[in-house]
Structures are given as structure tokens and as C-alpha cells.
Design a protein that fits this description.
This protein is an alpha+beta fold. The chain has two domains: 3-159, Ribosomal Protein S5, domain 2 (2-Layer Sandwich); 162-283, GHMP kinase, C-terminal domain (Alpha-Beta Plaits), CATH 3.30.70.890. It is 31% helix and 31% strand. It has helices at 68-79, 102-117, 124-131, 138-142, 179-189, 208-214, 220-226, 229-239, 261-270, and strands at residues 3-21, 27-47, 52-56, 85-91, 147-151, 156-162, 167-172, 205-206, 216-217, 244-247, 254-258, 278-283. The strands form two sheets. Strands 1, 2, 3, 4, 5, 6, 8 and 9 form an eight-stranded mixed beta sheet that branches. The protein has a four-stranded antiparallel beta sheet with strand order 10-11-7-12, with helices on one face. The protein is globular, with a radius of gyration of 19 Å.
């Protein structure tokens, strides 16, 4: 086998609390990661010609060594002393710069795909360890967890279970928000010695009421201050019947949580058409 195609899921954060800035420049956080049914598709091919090539069907995606999938492949080949050539093609559905973890997911799926394609049989904990330099979300995407509580910079994971499928309508406003800017803005305008918000989850099982109680995001007020269109999207989703709405990660997407699939489809049909917006129905994985 010299070719494999793997899916690469998006994520949302059901809760996101920023604790403190670390000496290494990262921030300690508490969050609840949730994989969702919005996917990129990655095709990996092996070649006798050394080197890595990367392509994408979205012109906004870099096709050089700055791409996280490229960096993931290079990291694995170097760490395992492999000289195989690899080509990577990314079919994008997850908007870039949307707070949905597309780049981190692409990196993780590339590692998992190459592990299978090359018959390496490397354990997930090894892949999680080597990939942390690629991004704080990557270990979650390496894991087999659909839902997980995360601490540290996002790499310390505790699997959680949902009692029911979560139905979401996600709106990407057509612009991105820099994660580096969001952390800098948060550090400037907020105290990092605030009261903790995410309590320890004792039974590791989340029902709808528990999910609703977790839905906050420390980035949201800062991002809305700079990008007021995000507040308008939240209000529109609420009017369309969302139980709750929340910024995705550091932005710019917003998700609305709905009680059932029927309600999410009804809301999707009600949302006004905006030229720049991309809207998706998705559910928890």
C-alpha cells in the first residue's frame, strides 16, 4: 500500500479558561475539547523520491514547510530516521483561522495516517509526545477521545463521555482571529488571578445540563470587543432557537447548541444569507 486517505475532524471548546502565562510563553488552560462532524480529508502517498510535498484545494492554505501537516510529516520522518518521500494533499472543509482546530487536526491526522501507511505501529502516547511542539491542540486530535477535559497547555487529557449527541450550527464570519493576538489582548485587559470556573468533573459523564453549565470562553469578551460582528452572530443564533451560543476557541467561528437535529436544521434554514459567512450543521463525535 502506497496511499491512504484519512479524515481530519474539527473541534470546539465546550469551556475554555485561561489560568496563567508560563515561563515558556505558553498559557496554562482548562478546557473541554469536543470533536465534531466537520472534516477535512487528507491523502498521503509514499514515494521513492525523498522529500515532502504538500498541496491543498484551498488557496489560503500554505503549501510549504509552514503548514502543520508538512511539519508533522517532517517530524515523524526525522524522529524515526526514515528517508521515504511523502506527498500530502488536503481537501479543506474546515475554515482556516476559525478556532476549529483545522491545522492541528491536519497535523494529527497526518501522523496517524503515516503511522498506518508505513506500518510503524507507534503507540498514541509516543505520537502525542513528539507532536506537542506542533500545537497545544494536536495531542487531543491524536487521542481516540471524542470528548476530553484538558489541562496544562492542552496536552494533559482526561476522557469524558456524553449522555447524548450534541447538535450544533457553526457560523464562520469570513475572517480569522489570531490566537497570539487573542492571548496578548486577554493578558492586557484581564486579570489572570480570577476565580476558577471549570470545576473538577467527578463522574466524567456530561449530560445536556452539564454541558450548558460549562459553556463559557475567556476569549469571548475580548474578541467581541474587537470584532462586534461575532456578537451579532451569537444573537442571530439565539433568535433561531439555540439553547446556548459560544465563540469557538479564540475565534472567529461561533457555535449554537441545539436540543436536537430537527432544531438545528430549522435554525440553519432560518439564518440569513451573508456573502462572507460559511455555515455548517455538525454533531459531537
Amino acid at each position: 500500500m502506497d496511499r491512504i486517505t484519512v479524515t481530519s475532524p474539527a473541534k470546539i471548546n465546550l469551556g475554555l479558561e485561561i489560568l496563567k502565562k508560563r515561563r515558556d510563553g505558553y498559557h496554562d488552560i482548562k478546557t473541554i475539547f469536543q470533536k465534531i462532524s466537520l472534516f477535512d480529508e487528507i491523502t498521503l502517498r509514499l514515494s521513492s523520491q525523498r522529500g515532502i510535498t504538500i498541496s491543498a484545494d484551498d488557496p489560503s492554505i500554505p503549501e510549504d514547510s509552514t503548514n502543520l501537516a508538512y511539519r508533522a510529516a517532517a517530524l515523524l520522518l526525522h524522529d524515526q530516521n526514515l528517508v521515504s518521500g511523502v506527498s500530502i494533499h488536503i481537501k479543506k472543509n474546515i475554515p482556516a483561522g476559525a478556532g476549529l482546530g483545522g491545522g492541528s487536526s491536519n497535523a494529527a491526522s497526518t501522523l496517524l495516517g503515516l503511522n498506518r501507511l508505513m506500518g510503524l505501529q507507534l503507540p498514541a502516547d509516543y505520537l502525542q509526545r513528539i507532536c506537542l511542539s506542533l500545537g497545544a491542540d494536536v495531542p487531543f486530535f491524536i487521542s481516540g477521545h471524542g470528548t476530553a477535559a484538558a489541562t496544562g497547555i492542552g496536552e494533559i487529557l482526561i476522557p469524558l463521555s456524553l449522555t447524548q449527541k450534541l447538535w450544533l450550527v457553526i457560523v464562520f464570519p469570513g475572517f480569522s482571529v489570531s490566537t497570539a493576538w487573542a492571548y496578548a489582548a486577554y493578558g492586557k485587559f484581564n486579570s489572570l488571578t480570577k476565580k476558577k470556573k471549570i470545576n473538577i468533573i467527578k463522574n466524567y459523564i456530561l449530560d445536556m445540563q452539564s454541558v450548558k453549565s460549562l459553556l463559557f470562553n475567556d476569549f469571548e469578551a475580548i474578541v467581541i470587543r474587537e470584532y462586534p460582528e461575532i456578537k451579532k452572530i451569537k444573537d442571530t443564533l439565539t433568535k433561531a432557537g439555540a439553547v446556548e451560543t459560544l465563540l469557538c476557541g479564540s475565534g472567529s467561528s461561533v457555535f449554537g447548541l441545539f436540543a436536537c437535529q430537527r432544531d438545528s436544521k430549522k435554525a440553519f434554514a432560518m439564518l440569513p444569507t451573508q456573502a462572507r459567512h460559511k455555515t455548517f450543521i455538525a454533531h459531537s463525535l
